[in-house]
Amino acid sequence: MSNRNYDVTSLGELLIDFTENGTSAQGNPIMEANPGGAPCNVLAMLERLGKKTAFIGKVGKDMFGNQLKAAVEEVGIDTRALIMDEEVHTTLAFVHTYPVPFAVGTANTMISGLSGTTEFATIGCCSRISCGSV
């Protein structure tokens, strides 16, 4: 095991989560582009704990793919196996957060501050990774 280069290597999705960040003057939701994808979220936490990590995946060779690659590299995750696809765009997910009532005791008792999410994703590079591409 002494020849091991990484403590953890992950394969999976890397995408942009558009989350609501306020309301415009016209009353429309303002959406913010955030790096997302569970595999890299876990790797980022492991990096903070001092582990050596690498990611295998695919993003589009576009502005969002560049943003994701930079964000992953910024936390120290090795991206040598991150493919930048010239034909398919980076996967985008639009996340809507809404309040979810949670009943405790009786139907009239609610705890505020809880929320749920609805996520709508477009088809992108995350759905096009295959054994032949990594």
Can you give me a brief rundown of this structure?
With 134 residues, this protein is of the alpha/beta class. Helices cover 17% and strands 44% of the residues. The protein has helices at residues 38-48, 63-74; strands at 8-11, 15-23, 29-36, 53-60, 78-85, 92-99, 103-104, 106-110, 115-121.
Give the arrangement of secondary structure elements.
Layout: E1 8-11, E2 15-23, E3 29-36, H1 38-48, E4 53-60, H2 63-74, E5 78-85, E6 92-99, E7 103-104, E8 106-110, E9 115-121
Parallel strand pairs: 1-4, 2-6, 4-5
Antiparallel strand pairs: 2-3, 6-9, 7-8
Percentage of helical residues?
A: 10-25%
N-to-C SSE series? Answer: EEEHEHEEEEE
Mean pLDDT score, rounded? 82
Question: How many β strands by DSSP?
Answer: 9
Task: Evaluate the radius of gyration.
Answer: 18 Å
Structural category: alpha/beta
How much of the sequence is in beta strands? 35-45%
Cross-sheet strand order for the largest sheet: 3-2-6-9
Number of helices: 2
Q: What is the CA-CA span between the terminal residues? A: 23 Å
Low-confidence stretches: 103-114
Looking at the structure, what is the overall shape? globular
Largest sheet: 4 strands, mixed
